[in-house]
Amino acid sequence: MKIVILAIYALILVGIAIYTARKTKTLDDFFLGGRKMGAWISAFAYGTSYFSAVIFIGYAGKLGWTFGLSVVWIGIGNALIGSLLAWLILGKRTRALTHKLNVSTMPEFFESRYGSKAMKILAAILIFVFLVPYSASVYQGLSYLFEGVFGIPFIYCVIGMAVLTAGYLVAGGYVATALSDFIQGIIMLGGVVLVIIFVIKNPVVGGLSAGLEKLAAIDPKLVSVIGPNWWSLLCLVILTSLGSWALPQMVHKFYAIKDEKAIMRGTIISTVFALIIAGGAYFIGVFGHLFLTDVPVDAVTGKANFDMIMPQMLDIALKNSSVLIGIIVVLVLSASMSTLSSLVLVSSSAISIDLIGAVNPKYTKEKTKSTMRWLCLLFVILSVILALFKFTTIITLMSLSWGTIAGAFLGPFLFGLYMKRATKAGAWAGMIAGLGTSLVLNSILPASQSPMASTIAMMASLVATPLVSLLTKPMPKEMVEKVTL
After folding, report:
1. What is the distance in angstroms between the CA of the first residue and the CA of the last residue of the chain?
2. Do residues 348 and 105 touch, judged by C-beta distance below 8 A?
3. Lowest-pLDDT range, 35-44, 182-191, 224-233?
4. Dist CA 318 CA 284 (whole Å)
5. Distance, CA of 277 to CA of 295 (rounded, Å)
6. Helical (H) or strand (E) element with 445
7. Comparing C-alpha atoms, which of 470, 124, 63 is closest to residue 295?
8. Cβ contacts of residue 303 below 8 Å, gap of 6+?
């Protein structure tokens, strides 16, 4: 039954690939869906790109084990800051300004807003290089789940997911991604609700009140509102919530949305979606201590591996229902496939549209579209290689990726939207401050401190951009008028 459910899901993706391949004729279709995406499609695309196996397997398992009930604050932060405020502050402004400047990527925005081709090239390189670890972390999360549920070796899980992702993305581009995201979002919502019910009702937990009492007996801090370490918790809230504001695969959804009415509806839909998915995932992870007595040991590395907590916990909680296990596998697969497709699409555009386009302005749109397809495959291959080596945990890979990119882009992007006085020097200062802080801190601090390092990097970017802008010569009048709405 588990295999049947998985096969049905795979066939749906194949059908989407065939259907959308016929509708993807131009570069604009392939990358932006013709800028005609409605509220529900855009909101689900945003939410499913936001949450993947990283949250369900890596974050929910380790952070639920470490912080207990207080980890739910991260889910609330994701809904209120990462979704509600992101749509309210960025949605309308991003769509309007990118339309006016006629840009379709974040590197293009930097070039047009600040008049710097060098900034465009650096941004493109950063996107391609640092989204690879994030993609690898998603593959790792998926593979741990498949390995635990189906007993399939890790390497075959990674390769299988890579082939499936590359297939429907290369065929249909953003149209395929958006359509599959909508279907995957529905699966995610239903799956999370079912998992919460089955975990709470499981005799190991014995209901919500009994479960919390059992956690308190293990350690009272596991049911504390603040948890054992408020500073680390705050850093995680900031990283996973504010960090999404500057991630190109998230902002990309605002470029493609149809109109301002769709943005208002999408704001509500996206917030509710995030509250259910993120809040539910972290809430499930809280009960890991009741299903497992200790952190599982990876047979390959011989070390304790927090990424294996959720797969083993779900296997125990749902072992009497093959149908439900199949649904949960598809739930995590859905979340991950949508995130992977967004990462691959944005990363390939960074090279084909931004880097090659900057070097060779005469490169045609048809050639660019063809190049994007090949780069999609290259990005998937690089991500798979990194995932197979299991260099570090999912959280560390994701923190390095999010922190470095958000650290480099947050200040220049946010103030580029709202601050007329923002200058090229200020944007460079914010980008270098964020990038440098992330790379230095992540290289000298232990891996466990990666979320803190990434949070500090984002703050450095937010401070450096306006400060240097106010201390340097204003942009030419014609540049300011160009970005005035």
Report:
1. 55
2. no
3. 35-44
4. 13
5. 24
6. none
7. 63
8. 297
Report the b/e string of 474-485 with b at 16+ CB within 10 A: ebeeebeeebee
Determine the CATH number of domain 2-391: 1.20.1730.10
Sign (positive/negative) of CA torsion 236, 242, 243, 244?
Answer: positive
Whole-number Å distance between alpha carbons of 29 and 35: 8
List beta partners, residue 37.
257
- Burial class for 443, CB neighbours closer than 10 Å (0-12, 13-18, 19+): exposed
Place of tokens 């995680």: 236
> Would you kindly state where each structural domain of the chain is located, as residue ranges?
2-391
Beta bridge pairs of residue 257? 37
**Which residue is associated with the tokens 């949070």?**
455
Question: How many angstroms separate the Cα of 35 from the Cα of each of 286, 347, 474, 482?
Answer: 40, 19, 33, 21
Tens of pLDDT along 84-124? 999 999 988 998 888 888 887 888 899 889 988 899 889 88
Phi-psi region of 91 (alpha: psi -120 to 50; beta: other; left: phi over 0): alpha
Is the predicted pLDDT of residue 33 greater than 60, yes or no?
Answer: no
Q: Is 37 helix (H, G, I), strand (E, B) or coil?
A: strand
- What span, in angstroms and rounded, lies between the C-alpha atoms of 325 and 313? 12
Residue 230 burial by Cβ neighbours in a 10 Å radius (0-12, 13-18, 19+): middle
Quote the CA–CA distance of 337 and 393 in Å, as a whole number: 20
- Orientation of helix 394-418 relative to helix 230-241, angle to 10°: 60
Residue 466 contacts residue 410 (beta carbons within 8 Å): no
365 or 73, which is more confident?
73
Sequence-distant (6+) residues with CB within 8 A of 459 are none
Q: Which of 2, 4, 17 shows the shortest CA–CA distance to 337?
A: 17
Question: What's the confidence (pLDDT) of residue 86?
Answer: 94
Name the H helices within 22-116.
27-32, 39-50, 53, 60-67, 72-79, 86, 92-101, 106-114
Give the model confidence (pLDDT) of 146-173 as tens digits.
676 667 676 776 677 777 766 666 665 6
